[in-house]
From TrEMBL, chains A, B:
Glycoside hydrolase family 65 N-terminal domain span: 14-266
Family: Belongs to the glycosyl hydrolase 65 family.
Source organism of the structure: Maribacter hydrothermalis
Family matches, as SUPFAM superfamilies: Galactose mutarotase-like, Six-hairpin glycosidases
UniProt: substrate binding residues: W358, D359, K601, Q602
Protein's name according to its UniProt entry: Maltose phosphorylase
Domain Glycoside hydrolase family 65 central catalytic: 323-689
Active site location: E489
GO BP terms, alphabetized: carbohydrate metabolic process
PANTHER family: GLYCOSYL HYDROLASE-RELATED, MALTOSE PHOSPHORYLASE
Highest taxon above the source species: Bacteria
Length: 767, 767
């Protein structure tokens, strides 16, 4: 843990007291988003202290020129960067002609931020003595509407204490923004038009190179004593437009600026209509007004929580952690658009180009399947189908052929956004996760249609890749896979990473099985796909041979599969034998030392045991868990959740609970000393899995949901809901019993601790 | 081969005809240097075509901020970059007020460059019709004085044909230069003073951060019809100073500008005297005049050639190649200053930070020992001794301790100048080459004094590093070395690279032997060193244990040591089975594909067989050569020479000859399509070894020189001289016989084809 200033609360994230040191961290933690756009919790008014300004529009990116020390063949020349967009939240405030700036105020007291997750609203308040000695009391509310997702709303209330004061509000739009995370300080935006009329303003701008057309817009109104104050004519410069309101405010009276703003983008509207659509949107929200829009917001969040909330009794920090995770996932991605995906930092920062990692398939899809519905997960799968041609092109660039597909390590539009050879070219297990997600989707939803319609083509491209990526070792008499990086990125360029080899074998076999299934059940699709891919029986036989003759490193002595060739040559000192001063090794050790060590960043062999647990006995799991976990440093946000699930499965609840705490409060407590760069969105789905799959023991077995619920000692009870094939099942676990409630009209049978249990609509069953 | 425009000639490098496409390539090839400074063959006059401008001062560098895509712990924050220095060669020439510029002339004919290696002078001539229709005939001569190495001289002769013309010469100094190879476009130079008086000018400037003080200076004079033309007052700007001469020149008459210029640097003079020393230097050279200075230049080069020339009869391209190699080595480093070293591109380009690679120890020292004297090689060794503390600090940064030393991959001042983890942290065999050079120096020169005085401390630091770098593998019951890159950089992060393990074992054993020797023969030094290093017998025992129990990968099936663990798992397709279209693989293949392949960039196992050939039988060599050479793509400039030597040793003269041609004409024929970036200086010493050690079969065995001369079929004869322990032995080889001539006063016994031969002063012995 690196910080503990966030107050524990069941439904809110709260900061109290103004500390400039925390500003960037809080800007991340208090970020708001609505799936279509999002922002860091930057102050609306001027702030001259340390800040990281960021406003992001889903799907709007820039192809930044690659920067490396040493170029390696195969790197992308350009890759998509998350792009800071024109700022619409800004409101300069002048009090007796001096800009309000918390960094220069003589005194700031009662500073409080609250991100209320129940209603999706962010409130900030403070009292200040300005540098020119005016005392004020400020309350600012802000939210991004879930209902009208192109718009956000701000209510900025200033009360003047003790003396009268002249206050000028200058709400503005600013297109003169830069990216913190840019390689070459390129100019990213080209502003084509700035217009304003009355209390509205618009900046039309498109991104350079990618040419995404956008309109950033705002409307502002000022009320004093119930009366609307007229704006002055707008101020405009090359990249900036503002509206000014001036008001003499009497002591102990308040003035309120209401600002609506947001973006219209060409993904949703014709280019030429962006400004007119923006105008219509402003008409709509100003008709509604701030309070009504806020009521809708609360209702919309209530409906999200209705399905996705996890209630934990008796452990307020754990409760706050899981809700923060669920809240952030929903702020980032709502499943409404198959062109979008779940960025590693969502709308909370810029680090890492691109938006889509294997995290989506390995961690996020289960969350969205269970808390939304089939359609959302299907959109996430379709996203990859839409990128298949680019994955084939990517593989071709690296020397593969015949339609072999290598999905990028991270991407925005299907093209690779990474440039580190040991990751970009070698961390190829990501391809397997994409195939696994297809299996997982069908297993959970029972919807087979995706496979003949789209999935099988993806699977064929992936199987082809694995077939070409191995080579036959005369020495071993088996197929080997050289030069890979497994999920444990503390090993690079290893040979026969067990997880990758296992996944490759599984992908081939799964593809062959689906080919048979589609052939017999979906003849038209089968012929279409065979025609398109030119797949022959001979090729399938070759694949099969690779799968059958795949090499797996194994230690007879320890009775475990080895993470990779040569793992036992390492100096096998357990993590708990390392001095604390050496941890985290990714900050204390040189890279070569990390590579030579046995230390594991995140589940690697154990990731395979997670994905394919039905292939292994509990004894196998225990043996591998006991062998690998002691070498695992969990220095990836994706590590604790898988280990939490497996520890729970092994009945080690204390260990499972500790892993849970680490994953759920990673950002709130800033374990990795980097939260100011943004939040770890995708690992938040892992937190959800830790509870549902870990403590709840939920699995899908033979088309049925199965549970083996346990509860950490620290908790009184916990409950969650899952949507399984249009049945919503609410699970409530206490240390005494477990109850199940089926919400809906159709009965369903589940398994609890291996025994069949029938659930009937709206009837509570306690086990 | 990528180009063939260089004319074959025994003593000169010649280009005929003006082709803008060749300008950058020729700027590299026709570079001149004198060990203290050097320049690319940029035109003196304006040139608006594609050009790569470069002037370099030995030992003057800039700490450029590291640029990487992804930071790895242990990278240096800054590293030294070769630095383009203020330009003193420039002469703007205006003909009837229009700048002479070969890129815009209406016609250029008779263009010819000649770099005469015998005398160290570069001549360029051409006729041109200028853009304003004046016909001129130009001859420019330029050289950098070996005798007064702070100065160079230019004679710029313009003859006007057909019509009279007004010609303005504007010789200048320009401090407003940039680096092609800079990471962040930093400003590298700070100009502190610009002065001029009569026909002289001076720019005082220091490098930013490193604060190297320099004075760039010039003197110019114009002669027309035997009379000196008076200059106009100097023009000056912030970073530029020039002197103008104006002359109306009659048709068919010539005007000659003579310019002297160069640098004085604080490495050689007190800061405050740089300009006054420059003035004195100009006094000296202007007293001498251009022609006398040139005569001295020829005499100095004659004396270099007297010792170092290799004459090849019957193969003009081979002759030109070896002389070009010897010439460039001498232009780069003359062995006069132990603070300097042999940069990979010498004074011909900027690529690669730093100046010193393991190339110096592995390739260059033998050349300098044999063609100069002990002192030069000793200076190169001392350079590393002077950097020992920094090598210890470098190792410490990576987690080593107790005085373990890791010399940088490349350096200028002892600090690491590389930032690619698989090289910087893993290509650690460089440390062994530094120890090997100490052994090689003593073996060749018989001068043991270096070891007690300095070498032993270096050896202890290196032995300590190896001892800490291995770990004991319980699995193998041996010490293993994980995560290294061998000389074959087409493998990264491998385990138990045979060459590195062998070298480590050798280093430890050699250090232990020297400790004993110094203890018994140099007690004072021994106690000083033990006191300083705190070395204990217990530590030495641990080293010994590592050396004794080192693991070496070996294949029983093939009877060869394996390049690294798992080499036989590769798809062992020989290079000659690869389609030509796939070569060179470093341009045609993605990096991961190269890594997975069996292809070898340069000698790796065979480098060990080269260094330690006495440890292996000829049969062993043959077996390993036959196993590894077929997988070797020779895509490093350092590859063909070692293979040439070994092919010759195995009696495969045709193969040896082909390797020789490739190494000797690498830059002239631009095999690697990159000569425009600069020349490959260090590999040029490998070319010399190919003849002397390869064809000549020269070795030192038991304190005696030994030869096994052979001659390629393509040659009539060849001869070379070596300086061995103050005896100069001239070797002349024809297809019929070999003759030896001892130049000097003391007799010496050598071995020829295993038989002892006594050489007497100035007596020719034919075998």
């Amino acid at each position: 843990m690196n910080q503990d200033y966030i107050k524990a609360d069941k439904w809110s994230i709260i900061e109290e007291g103004f500390d400039q040191e925390n500003v960037k961290s809080s800007e991340s933690i208090f970020s708001i988003g609505n799936g279509a756009m999002g922002q860091r919790a930057n102050f609306e008014e001027t702030y001259t202290g340390e800040t990281f300004q960021g406003s992001y529009i889903a799907g709007v990116y820039y192809p930044d020129k690659t920067r490396v020390g040493w170029w390696k063949n195969g790197y992308p020349e350009y890759f998509a960067k998350v792009l800071n967009a024109p700022n619409w939240i800004g409101i300069n405030i002048y009090i007796n002609d001096v800009a309000l700036d918390l960094a220069t105020c003589k005194k700031v007291s009662g500073f409080r931020r609250e991100l209320n997750m129940k209603g999706g609203i962010y409130t900030r308040c403070f009292q200040a003595v300005t540098s020119n000695n005016v005392e004020i009391d400020v309350i600012v509310k802000r939210f991004l509407s879930l209902d009208i997702d192109e718009v956000g709303a701000i209510s900025y209330n200033v009360k003047v204490l003790k003396t009268d004061a002249k206050i000028v509000f200058e709400p503005y739009l600013d297109g003169g923004i830069t990216n913190e995370d840019s390689n070459w300080d390129d100019k990213f935006w080209n502003i084509t038009n700035i217009t304003s009329a009355n209390n509205r303003a618009f900046i039309e701008a498109h991104t350079m190179k990618t040419n995404f057309q956008t309109c950033t817009f705002m409307q502002a109104s000022l009320h004093y004593n119930g009366k609307e104050v007229s704006p002055k004519p707008a101020d405009r410069s090359e990249s900036f437009v503002s509206i000014k309101f001036e008001q003499n405010v009497k002591a102990n009276e308040s003035v309120v600026l209401t600002k609506f703003g947001g973006y219209t983008v060409e993904r949703n509207h014709p280019n030429k209509e962006l400004t007119s659509v923006a105008n219509l949107t402003l008409d709509k929200v100003s008709d509604l007004g701030f309070e009504s829009l806020l009521e809708k917001q609360k209702a919309s969040w209530a409906s999200i929580w209705e399905m996705s909330d996890i209630v934990i009794e008796g452990d307020i920090k754990a409760q706050q952690g899981i809700r923060f995770n669920i809240f952030q996932l929903n702020q980032t991605y709502l499943g409404t658009d198959s062109r979008l995906n779940i960025g590693p930092k969502g709308f909370t920062g810029e680090k890492y180009g691109g938006s889509t990692y294997w995290d989506t398939e390995a961690y996020c899809i289960p969350f969205y399947m269970a808390t939304k519905d089939d359609k959302v997960a299907r959109k996430l799968l379709k996203y990859r189908y839409n990128h298949l041609e680019k994955a084939i092109a990517n593989a071709k660039k690296l020397g593969f052929f015949n339609g072999a597909a290598l999905y990028p390590m991270v991407t925005m539009n299907g093209e690779e956004c990474h440039n580190e050879w040991e990751i970009t070219f070698e961390e190829i297990h990501r391809n397997g996760a994409i195939a696994f997600a297809i299996h997982n989707y069908y297993r959970y939803t029972g919807d087979y249609s995706y496979i003949p319609e789209m999935g099988l083509e993806v699977l064929i491209g992936i199987a082809r890749f694995w077939h070409q990526r191995v080579n036959f070792s005369e020495e071993k008499g088996k197929y080997v896979m050289l030069g890979v990086t497994g999920p444990n990125e503390y090993e690079n360029n290893v040979h026969n990473n067990w997880y990758t080899n296992y996944l490759a074998k599984w992908c081939i076999n799964y593809t062959l099985t689906q080919l048979d299934k589609v052939k017999s059940g979906y003849a038209d699709d089968y012929h279409r796909i065979i025609g398109k891919t030119k797949l022959t029986d001979r090729e399938c036989e070759k694949w099969k041979n690779v799968a059958d003759e795949m090499y797996f490193p194994y230690s007879k002595k320890y009775g475990v599969f080895l993470q990779q060739d040569g793992f036992l040559d390492k100096d096998l000192v357990r993590v708990d034998e390392l001095p604390k001063t050496e941890r985290p090794i990714n900050q204390k050790w040189s890279w070569d030392r990390i590579l030579r060590s046995p230390y594991i960043k995140q589940a690697d062999v154990l990731q395979g045991f997670y994905f394919f647990e039905e292939d292994f006995s509990l004894e196998d799991l225990e043996k591998h868990f006991d062998f690998y976990e002691p070498f695992t440093v969990h220095e990836s946000s994706l590590s604790p959740c898988v280990h939490s699930i497996q520890a729970a499965k092994l009945g080690r609840m204390e260990q499972a609970y500790n892993f849970y705490l680490r994953t759920s409060r990673l950002d709130l407590d800033d374990y990795n000393k980097e939260v100011e760069e943004g939040l770890h969105i995708t690992s938040m789905a892992g937190t959800w899995m830790s509870i549902v799959e870990g403590f709840g023991g939920m699995r899908v077995v033979d088309d049925k949901l199965s549970f083996k619920p346990q509860i950490p000692n620290q908790w009184k009870a916990y409950s969650f809901k899952v949507n399984f094939r249009d049945r919503i099942i609410k699970v409530h676990v206490t240390s005494e019993n477990v109850s199940f409630q089926l919400i809906g009209s159709k009965e369903v049978s589940i398994r609890v601790n291996g025994k069949k249990v029938e659930l009937f609509p709206d009837k509570l069953i306690t086990v």
